[in-house]
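dude i think i finally got it to work??
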Amino acid sequence: MNKLIATITSITTVACFLAGSTFAACLPPNDDAGNTSGTAAVIPSTGFNGVRTLEHRSDQDFFVFTAIPYATYTFTVTEVSAPDLDVCIRAGDGSHILQRKNSAAGNNVSFSYNVPAGSAGGQTFIDVRSLGEAKAGTYRLNVTANFGPDNDNDNLPDQWEVGPWGNGTLNTLASTGAGGLDGWQHDKDGDGFSNWQELQMGTDPTVFGSSLIILDIEKETSYDGAPNAFQADMAEVQWPAVNNGYYEVSYRTNDVSTDWRNDSNWTVIDSMLYTGTSGDIWTDDLDGVPPIYKIYRVQQFGISPAP
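look at this
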């Protein structure tokens, strides 16, 4: 997945934002899907159909895909040789269960899921295991995606295009004439994010200031009683959040000119699946390191770079 970065400056602190997604690919020997959300096997957003194996009774198989807003996803998990499956659909970092079913009463389980209107898309997990860790075996996972009509062939859902920014008409977001074949690539508001990325981020593609950006960093101070003994011991980082967006806030104390892409250079202070009305939210940096000079980063995970 691609990562996008821009930088702003706030007094003595450089604030960075980054959107994108990286999934680990470190599976145990002979395991065809990871046992945790961090080692989940990546499947396409457009659908998947394949037979997979629970290699032992306590095996868990995690799969992950990028859920696109306005698409309806149908998941079916069918027993092949593995009886009584326990299946979860998860969001965020994989700890938030959206739906859970088992096949004890039949030989398959089915789910239907779509990203709520006006919300961000993002990484969605499918977790398959043996119910009660009873028996190993094989199963079939089938994922289908229905993206709805796209009458102007620009890879953007008509329902989204005719939203508040579209005034009820198609082609509003395209950079070419009728048909708007590169409408998904176009950056209508010039904020550095394509229409396709804004669809997934849940932001307004016609408003420059609606995208993910650190809005403010406020330093909190305390006084220990001695003359001139005020010191900065906490910071509050603020950014605009969208319902269903999964965000992670981290910091570093060294210069941003070194490799900012290396996650080992950053210390995570908070992560969250935001649910609620879209608006400005904040997190407190309470890790105990005074924010005399810190570089902060806010990431929104699960943004696919192209249709």
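The CA atoms of residues 9 and 218 lie 12 Å apart.
im so relieved honestly
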